[in-house]
């Protein structure tokens, strides 16, 4: 809406001349030097020694194990978030109880907490010295736990505003037309939440596949067992195999882009019916 | 009686909203719930639909006690001021919703929905989403959706409140005609007295959470129960300590029996009618006359005239 | 009934995943009083890590704030070809693993890369030193300021700015007197987010810093290194310090968040 209004009121011809050109120049150079050229260099380096080498780098046993673990665990974590994130958003919007606002604030903690600290605190409660007697250190469950921690806010924060804006009269209309609570949820509420739920899930998934810091301590980085892709890349860099590292990085970039592009398509689809 | 409301009380927190409300709605009637904003009209309508629980009192629909029934079991059609359209469903699926819930056969649903869409003139827009409709179209869709389940009563909460003046006028006439065709017992809420008089066959005036008067539009207009109703239903002016309709006043150039002397302060010509503003007994009043009468009297500012209610005019003494 | 069950599940999930772990580490840190905490954080290595962290985060926040304001104004107020593309590129860092960020910077600014070699011959070392760490931090925190300002600029509209122009204000005057006050809360929100992200960055910095103790070691690297060397008290103390910073950030952003303010906070 606002974008369209802006587009009408601005007079492009007059503005592009001075300020725009200078500002645009600065922004493009900044973005290129820091983000675009380096990322292009990664992709370039991965293809450096031909497709055969790329394929071999990606399919070395440890790299392949790391990639499949990363994508599998991320998919699982995305699914957990889909359910739990929606449930938490629901409780935050529709439920009333003391401490609700505190809960609402705490949800953003994973965004603010450094990932290495996240890993450390999880290890304290779910590691060898766990006061609960649950030891997930050096296990795949530990990796999943770390990914659950860092991705918690995504679904909650995409579903929550949609739920807040959802017209409750729509639910009353459904009830007066004979729909029971479950039918109202399935036929009226859920379809209106699905686009937000899916985009939150896609965001959580892209975050999970790229996660590094939180898994370092709790996973123990055991190749073939708990080593995630980012850690595998890290060890390849340490071993001076930048071409191999670049190949796995490229795979991660492509998977993330595919997830984000599908998300964009989903959002357009959702907006069409807005 | 299609709807019988008995001694309903309802408070939100400590704020009383409905106070001992009783109401009868005859089967097949088109009843307007009229009153100022905040008077409790929506709350009463929502109590009838089961969307609010009354604190005390009962609601009977078609002779059955519905007080404890959930809205989903009342078989009541409800139309919301802001449409409450299902945004994720097409016009067709919106209207089909209640029938799908009732698990009617596909072919029957299709036939019924298309009939209704024709009735509300939306048959060409069946595949659109609500966001692709105008306000008036959305409201007609909501109406068709409510009618689809063949409700025992149809309840509309300020159905035209969110529309612009032009569309409002059109839909009013259209609702009247629709009711003549469908005959479903209908209650609609409005704060616009003109709308109520034009559309309804019964008007119930609700103010401050109480039913102040109920009757046909003519009765309520001509025999208002109190000054409040008289003011709310049409223009009034005050002459000789009484409230009178400005078109029920006779102007004479000379003194007449039972008349009050007045001085003209302004004459405003509004097309066919003329508004004569006067000072009478130290305060402002006004009289509505036709252009012909005004021309015959040749009124101008400063003229002294004499006013009295026309024979048979209804006036209400104001307690002083 | 179902309502209570759902509430219980949601609260328990957040409690066991977020709250209890953080509380446990704070409790372990302060279990023996304040002294060990202070001692652990005032060791020369810890103090040096603080200094490096603040230097790197400071530069990164300044750079991203300037870039963020310029880019947000470009995106909202100006028309130019490729605008959508610029918008998409801004969000790109969100989808990139911190380790890949580090690798990307090494491939361009490393000693053996053409560009890095050129800088090296001018006596500027980027990788394994502060400039590289600043670049890495800038990369990961890049979208935060832009994304905080854009919605507020859109909502503000440009009528006030045009009014200022018609009253004789120059571009700079208009920016300082009209635009900046209009976006100050959002800008504050963006800067706080950016600062928190910069202070807490681990992966990208781990790659480009070379993790040289007492040289390029930031606070997050300090946590990891101390933990791996079985110095739990120091690791817990630094982690607690970072967690407290995160909590303060959380409360600050809650205070500054533009949406909450509009709701009549
Ligand atoms: N859900 C509610 N909670 C609290 N107060 C309410 C609620 N619904 C209505 N009210 C109050 O009840 C009074 C009557 O409201 P309403 O029935 O909507 O009046 P009307 O429809 O005649 O304008 C108003 O003072 C309103 O503020
Ligand atoms: Mg109302």
From TrEMBL, chain B:
Domain ABC transporter per the UniProt entry, residue ranges: 3-233
Short name of one Pfam family: ABC_tran
Record keywords, A-Z: ATP-binding, Cell membrane, Membrane, Nucleotide-binding, Sulfate transport, Translocase, Transport
Top-tier EC class: translocase
Coiled coil: none
InterPro entries given in the database record: AAA+_ATPase, ABC_SmlMolc_Importer, ABC_transporter-like_ATP-bd, ABC_transporter-like_CS, Mo/tungstate-bd_C_term_dom, P-loop_NTPase, Sulph_transpt1, TOBE-like
Gene Ontology CC: one annotated term: ATP-binding cassette (ABC) transporter complex
Molecular function terms from GO: ABC-type quaternary ammonium compound transporting activity; ABC-type sulfate transporter activity; ATP binding; ATP hydrolysis activity
SUPFAM superfamilies linked to this entry: MOP-like (SSF50331), P-loop containing nucleoside triphosphate hydrolases (SSF52540)
The keyword Hydrolase is annotated on this UniProt entry: no
Domain of life according to the entry: Bacteria
Name of the protein this chain belongs to: ABC-type quaternary amine transporter
UniProtKB/TrEMBL annotation, chain C:
Signal peptide feature range: none
Database matches in CDD domains: TM_PBP2
Main location (coarse class): membrane
Keywords: Membrane, Sulfate transport, Transmembrane, Transmembrane helix, Transport
Highest taxon, organism lineage: Bacteria
A molecular-function term among this protein's GO annotations: ABC-type sulfate transporter activity
Subunit-level organization: The complex is composed of two ATP-binding proteins (CysA), two transmembrane proteins (CysT and CysW) and a solute-binding protein (CysP).
Function according to Swiss-Prot or TrEMBL: Part of the ABC transporter complex CysAWTP (TC 3.A.1.6.1) involved in sulfate/thiosulfate import. Probably responsible for the translocation of the substrate across the membrane.
Record-given protein name: Sulfate ABC transporter permease
UniProt organism field: Microbispora hainanensis
